[in-house]
Design a protein that fits this description.
- By secondary structure, the protein is mostly helical.
- It has one domain: Hydantoin permease (Orthogonal Bundle), CATH 1.10.4160.
- It has 18 helices and no strands.
- Helix 3 (about 45-75) packs across helix 16 (about 380-410), helix 11 packs across helix 14 (about 310-345) and helix 13 runs antiparallel to helix 14 (about 310-345).
- Bound molecules: phenylalanine.
Length: about 450
């Protein structure tokens, strides 16, 4: 199939362009905002270790599978699944996997954009000198006042959604490639600079100890599911984004090499974020388990007191917004291509409708931080529920289905041909992981959480 076809949406201009886009999709709020706070909530080192295992043994092989399925199908996730199903003469219900991805992407983006809106607002707070000489208490208050205001959150959520849709509207290579070429390297440099700052704080070793010392008594079944969900979320797999990006991948590019580079970059950024944040938490007597506000309550303290902090503060939040933007475009691209390819929409119209629906769903998260904070379903606010349902349920279920499809349903020759590994042994290792280990890991974590184990 893929020998003759290209995606109707075009192709990446080079191997580097694909690596950039895939790294852009992977590296985002998940690494810098979410990884530190869920590590804080789940007790530190042991959680980090489980997370790393999930990335290497489950995430990586599934990411390879999702990319190869995308490249073979060459379309939006639903059409790709239909084509692959027909090719493998399998049950047509498999196309629901594509559907689940489309829905998960929009649901994730609905709250992702709200948090990215916080980051955008913090660019301006940094610029206006709000952090200057402020102590931990003042910074905490600044954040609390900010999220208590639905109007402000709506404003920034709207701004971020407009920015996302204006990139997606321009299509894959013009919209994305250009900005990422410059911005991703900047993000790395800035993170390294901030690690340098963290090393000068008195809480540095306590922070490292928290991040890397594994105390397994702090791990519950739910923490393991959270680590697994975070691996999926952070790599951006299990929902069709990687499938769509794979659809734009030229035939000659090595999937394995790319996926390994992207997952290493993704993991390094998450760990760097942890190495920056926890020393600041301990130096200032803050709690590592303070939840989604963690980076907004810690980093401004550093920017308020360090030399050059005004500039670094602005740069950091700009980079965070950029990292979020390169992920948000990946979250909505499956829906947009689906509307174009199956409903005959123009790219503009597809962006308008998918953006509008996602923007509206975002209000549920906005209000869950203020007016509706008391409204809970299964003990969770609407934001927490959306996050749990997508990251901890939909993505792992999507990943599980991808593993089963690639490992058991797809014609073996096709996956072997797409992966094009240097020797049969490497292919067999991947096959072992995708057929047995990855699905079994997801399955057992679920059993544990529902209390069967
Ligand atoms: N990986 C992104 C992040 O870490 C989020 C994302 C999830 C992007 C799923 C694409 C698909 O922020």
């Amino acid at each position: 199939m893929s020998d003759t076809k290209k995606s109707p949406q075009g192709e990446w201009s080079s191997h580097f362009a694909f690596i950039l886009a895939a790294t852009g999709s992977a590296v985002g709020l998940g690494n810098i905002w979410k990884f530190p706070y869920i590590t804080g909530e789940n007790g530190g080192g042991a959680f980090v270790l489980v997370y790393l295992l999930c990335v290497a043994l489950v995430g990586l092989p599934i990411m390879m599978a999702e990319t190869l399925m995308g490249r073979r199908g060459r379309h939006n996730p639903v059409t790709t699944m239909e084509a692959l199903t027909a090719e493998a003469k399998a049950d047509e219900h498999w196309h629901y996997l594509g559907w689940m991805g489309i829905i998960a992407g929009m649901l994730i983006l609905s709250y992702y954009s709200v948090i990215a809106g916080w980051a955008t607002a913090y660019v301006f707070k940094a610029f206006s000198g709000s952090f200057f000489d402020a102590d931990a208490h003042a910074i905490k208050q600044l954040f609390a006042d900010f999220i208590a205001s639905p109007i402000q959150l709506i404003f920034w959520h709207t701004a971020f959604m407009l920015a996302t849709m204006s990139i997606v509207k321009r299509g894959i290579s013009h919209g994305l490639e250009k900005s990422l070429r410059f911005l991703m390297p900047c993000l790395f440099v800035l993170l390294i600079l901030l690690v340098g700052y963290a090393m000068t704080t008195p809480g540095y070793f306590q922070g490292l100890h928290f991040l890397f010392n594994a105390d397994f008594s702090k791990l519950s079944g739910n923490s393991i599911l959270t680590a697994l969900g975070q691996a999926f979320f952070s790599l951006g797999i299990g929902m069709g984004a990687v499938m769509v990006y794979g659809a734009y991948l030229p035939k000659k590019i090595s999937i394995t090499e790319t996926v390994v580079i992207v997952s290493i970059a993704d993991t390094v950024v998450a760990l760097l974020a942890g190495i920056i944040i926890f020393p600041i938490v301990f130096t200032n007597g803050l709690e590592p388990n303070s939840g989604p506000g963690l980076i907004f309550e810690t980093l401004p303290i550093a920017f308020g007191s360090m030399i050059g902090g005004w500039l670094f503060g602005i740069l950091f939040f700009v980079m965070l917004v950029v990292a979020a933007l390169s992920s948000s475009v990946a979250l909505i691209e499956p829906t947009v291509t689906w509307l174009i390819e199956t409903r005959g929409f123009s790219r503009e119209k597809a962006c308008l409708w998918s953006g509008l629906v996602t923007w509206l769903v975002g209000f549920a998260s906005i209000f869950s931080f203020n007016s509706w904070s008391e409204f809970k379903v299964f003990g969770l606010t609407l934001f927490e529920l959306l996050d749990y349902a997508t990251a901890n349920l939909m993505l792992p279920i999507g990943g599980f289905a991808i593993a089963i499809f690639a490992g058991w349903v797809m014609v073996r020759d096709h996956s072997e041909q797409e992966l094009d590994l240097p020797n049969p042994q490497s292919y067999q290792i991947w096959e072992l992981l995708i057929k047995y280990l990855a699905p079994a890991a997801v399955f057992f974590v679920f059993l544990d959480v529902v209390g069967v184990l």
